[in-house]
Structure formats: C-alpha cells, structure tokens
Amino acid sequence: MRNRINIVLLFLVFCLMPFSCLMAGEAQYQDINYTFDENHMTAEVALNPRATGEIFIPEQIQVGQNSYTVVGISDKAFKGCKNLTAIVLPKTLKQVYRSAFEGTGIYLNKSNWTEGCLWIDSVLISTDKNIKPRFVVPEGTRLIAAGAFQGNKVIQRIEIPACINRIDHETFRDCKNLQKIVIPPTITSIGEEAFTGSGIALNENKWKKGALIIDDCLIATNNELPAKYVFKNKTPIRLIAERAFANKKNLKSVEIPNTITTIPTAAFMGCENLTDVVIPATVKTVGNFAFYNCVKLRNAKLPTELERLGAGVFYGCENLTEQVLSEKLQSIEKAAFFMCRSIKKITFPARLKRIDDGAFAGCSSLEAINLPSSLQYLGEQAFAGCAALRRVSIPEGVNSLSKQVFQGCSHLYRIDLPEGLYAIGDEALSGCIALEIINIPKSTFRIGVRAFHNCQQLREIRLVDHIHMIEDGAFMECKLLEEIKLPASLKLLCRAAFAQCISLRKVQLNKNLKEIGDGAFCQCRSLREVEWNDSLRVIGTEAFLECKYLKTPVFDANVEIRKNAFKGCK
Q1: How far apart are CA 408 and CA 361, in angstroms?
Q2: Of 44, 91, 96, 51, which Cα lies nearest the Cα of 70?
C-alpha cells in the first residue's frame, strides 16, 4: 500500500508542474532568488516580491561548485515591486513574462514606454492602447515577452523581424482585432495558446480541415480534425506550436512530416485515442509532455538521431510496449516513461549519463534493464514500482542510490552494487520483497531511512566497517534475517533499525557502539543472543520490546536504560 501511495504522489507532483520548465532546486545569488535545472545547467529568476532599486541579472550564477546559465525570468517574478526602478537583463535570456514586471516601478513609470511599448534592454515586455494598429517590431529586438500583446484591442497587423526566434505563451491571446501576422523563418517555436482568442483564430476562413496554419506553422487544431491526420499544405509545414493537438479525442493516427525537427511541449497531450504516430528521422527533439497521457498509444518509434527526450514525454502511455533509445541521448528526463505499464524492454544508449526522477516509475511490466557503464546518476524513484524487474547491476559511475529508486520492485531478487557507492538513500529498496542477499560495498558509509524496509526474503546482510549510519527503520520487517554483526565504525544504531525482524536470533554489537536507538530491535521475537560491549551508554525506549527469549542483562551504572527497553523479555 505504501508503494502505491508513493507512486500516486509522484503522479500528482508531475501533474502540477508547469509544462514549460521542470526545475531541480532553489538558490539565492547576490540577493536574487533563482530556480536552477541541474540537468541542463540553466537557471531562471524566481519570485522576488521585495525587490527594490536597480537590479543586475548576470548571465551566470554560481551555486556551490556549479555554474548555471540564466535563461529565464519566471511568471510574476517581480510583480508588484513598486520600488523596483531599473533592471539589466542578461544576453543569455531566452524567456520572460509580461507579468514578471506588472505593477513594478519600471512598469508604472511612463517614461519607460515608447509608442505604446515597454522596453527593457531591447526586450519587448508589454504593450498598451497607444500602440500603432499596424506594428512592425523593430530590428534589434532580441526577445518578445510571453503575453506582451495579450488583450490588446488596437493591434490589427504585426510583422516580426528575423532577429526573433520564438513566439511565446499567450503572446497574442485575445487580440480580437489582429487579422494579419508575418512569421519569419527564424521562428523555431511557438508557445501554447499564442493566438487563442485573437482575430486570426476567430476567423473561420483561416482554418483548413481542423487546423489553423499561418506562414507554414501549424498553430492550433479544433474538433473538425480528422481521425487520421495527414499534413497537407501548399508548402511544407515547418513548425508545430506547443499543445497544437492537445486533447483532441478523435485523433487516432498522425504522420509527422520530415520538415519537422522538433515535436514541441505537450503537442499531443491528452489525445486519449491516439494509437499510432510516425516520427520522421529529421526530429531531433521531443519536448516535455509531448505524448502525455496518450493512453492508447502503441507505436511511436523514436528516431535514431534523436538528441533530446523531454520530461514526461510518454507519461501515462500505458499501452506503449517497447522503446529503443537513440545513441545520441545522454539523459532520460523526469517521468519520461512514467506509468508506461506495458513496456517490457528498454534499450539504453551506450553514452547515457543520467536517468532522472521517476523516469520509469510504475513500468510494472519492465522485466530487465541493462544500465550502461557511462551512467552517473539515478534519480529518485527512477524505477519505483517496476514490479517485474528481477535483477539489476548498478554501474561504477553511480556513487549513490537515490531516495526510493527501486522502491516496490517486488520481484527484484538481486542487485549488484558498485565499489565506490557511498550511500544507500531513504527507502531505496523498500518493499523489494524478493531480495535475498545484499553485499554492501566497502565505500558505503550511510544506509538511509527504511532503505531495506520490508525486504521479506532478505536472509543475509554483509555490513562493512565504513558504515557510520544505519538510519531509522533501515532493515525493519526483514522477516528472514537471522544474524547481524554491526560494523566497527558504527556508533549509533537509529530508531527501529531492525524492528520486527521476527527471525533474528543473534546480534553482535561492535566495540564502539554507544547508543541503541528507540525500538531498534522491537518485536524481534526470536532474538536469543546479544553480544554486548563495554562502550554502550544508552539503550533507547522499547529497544528490545517483546524480545521474549532474550535474557535481560546486568549493566553498570554508566548505562542509561530508558522506558520499557526490555519489556517482555525474560
């Protein structure tokens, strides 16, 4: 039950994440808050509700030993900061939201506006009613903010210069009088709902067979889309907008033309009757959540030259059966194959370095994985709930097992850990009820909270002398464990570490152990023999509760025996 709950929680976490960016951490640099992405080594400015005066945003920020390139200003980052009077934006910036500056001193200062436009460092932030109906974005503009024209009732025609490469989220949303736009060939991506509610989108004559196409860019689709969609246009479609086909219930198959290089974020999200997708060899990137919750999708063969597979790409595609991953992939991002219950086999690329959080969580039919020697990182819950998985060998480049990485892999009977592994994370192998033996590498110093909890078939544990911490419930409910020899390096045995190990008969304490935590051997009903040491100073509450065959020893006055430590013993 615990494993199922954790999988559901992970499901909810990813559902609530914004599609545009999945950040990994938070930090403050020179008094400005940032979120940063360890996978792509990028950062964006986070919420800074108390920003004042003049602010400089650098191109790079330093977090610990790592340097991150600043690429974004997040939604509402400085909203309402009336005392923010000036800001310098980095040249590395790729995305900024109009809402980031609404209500700021910069936004409210009319001297910062020119002919109905607010500019900051050649970035077009916002527009108002003073804009010209026919507007040409000036050459030299390096970025147009998401929502920059949103709700503008004046604009009728707009020309975007070749210096711009993206039309962002909701940029022209609800521009009801906008009838014409010139999209240059330099535009490589169009954000979700960029034209929703605009005069262009409201004009029925602009739609052909359920699709809105502007300058060879497929912007959106509607319910008139045929079940089998074939891209037909006078000139080839060169671009698909984000969420262009999202939630089209009647769509069953689609063949993407070979003029497309990117399948964008959430392009086919929620197409619950989509069964077949032909992806051409020209595609280099499949964006975040591209096929999210396409529950009937069976065939979506990935190109051999694919360079990036985004987060949550096949999230919830429970009928997808097999995938061979491109040799050019170096990472599998968060929740990429989350809950793909029918996948039995995955072929990993030889140069793969990262498998991120929840990448294969809930792939309950996945029987075998061959992790490449190049692998350096396994994220939290990477293979959690892979109930059919039987054996795993962790490559030498992986130096720790992340939290819940193999939790609930109920048929996993063997896992080979590499020399150099320094930590086994919280609940890393919890619920692996078939696991029979575990050899802890000599380099390991930490065994996390409930790391091996409920490993019911675990008969033998070889604990090495470098272990400093066996944390709460680490081996709780390991019901076949019969004997334990604690390593010489261990000074504290934490709470419930071996609780309810009902077959445990013998425990050999090390000479340096000073404290046995609360409930450490609680309800170990077969425990008969403990080799005590002279260094022991504390025996915690209910430490040996209901160990009915254990004779209560006699200790000197230096040992603190807490409440019910030996209750129920002989």
Answers
A1: 10
A2: 44
> Quick one: which of 383, 391, 374, 303 has its CA closest to 343?
383
Give me the sign of the Cα torsion angle 470, 472, 474, 479. Answer: positive
DSSP state of 11: H
Local confidence band at 158 (pLDDT 50, 70, 90 cut-offs): very high
pLDDT band at 96 (very low <50, low <70, confident <90, very high): very high
> How far is Cα 43 from Cα 41, in angstroms, rounded to an integer?
7
Give the burial class of 257: count Cβ atoms within 10 A of its Cβ; 0-12 exposed, 13-18 middle, 19 or more buried. Answer: middle
| 3 state SS for 194-222 | CCCCCHHHHCHHHEECCEEEECCEEEEEC
- What length is written for the chain? 570
Place of tokens 């990182």: 377
CA distance 73 to 47: 9
In angstroms, the CA 370 to CA 107 distance is: 55
Ramachandran region of residue 25, left (φ > 0), alpha (ψ -120 to 50) or beta?
beta
CA distance 522 to 183: 70
Other Cβ atoms less than 10 A from the Cβ of 515: the count is 17
E strands along 300-352, which residues? Answer: 308-309, 322-324, 331-332, 345-347
Beta strand 32-37 with 354-355: parallel, antiparallel or unpaired? Answer: unpaired
Helices and strands, counts by H and E, the chain = 3, 47
H/E element, 442: none
Find, among 213, 302, 221, the residue nearest to 267 by Cα.
221
Q: Mean pLDDT score of the chain, rounded to an integer?
A: 92
Integer Cα distance of 360 and 340 in angstroms: 8
Tokens of residue 483, six digits? 């004997």
CB 509 within 8 A of CB 533: yes
Q: How many CB atoms lie within 10 A of CB 244?
A: 22
Question: Is-above-0.85 flag for pTM?
Answer: yes
Beta strands in 367-501 (DSSP E): 377-378, 391-393, 400-401, 414-416, 423-424, 437-439, 446-447, 460-462, 469-470, 483-485, 492-493
Instruction: Give the Cα separation of 279 and 254 in Å (integer).
Output: 9
Is the pLDDT confidence value at 186 over 80?
Answer: yes
- The CA distance from 332 to 156, in Å, is 43
Q: Which helix (H) or strand (E) holds 138?
A: none
**What does the pLDDT read at residue 544?**
96
Question: 392 by DSSP, 3-state: which?
Answer: strand
List strands edge to edge, sheet with 228-230.
Answer: 228-230, 253-255, 276-278
pLDDT above 70 for 230: yes
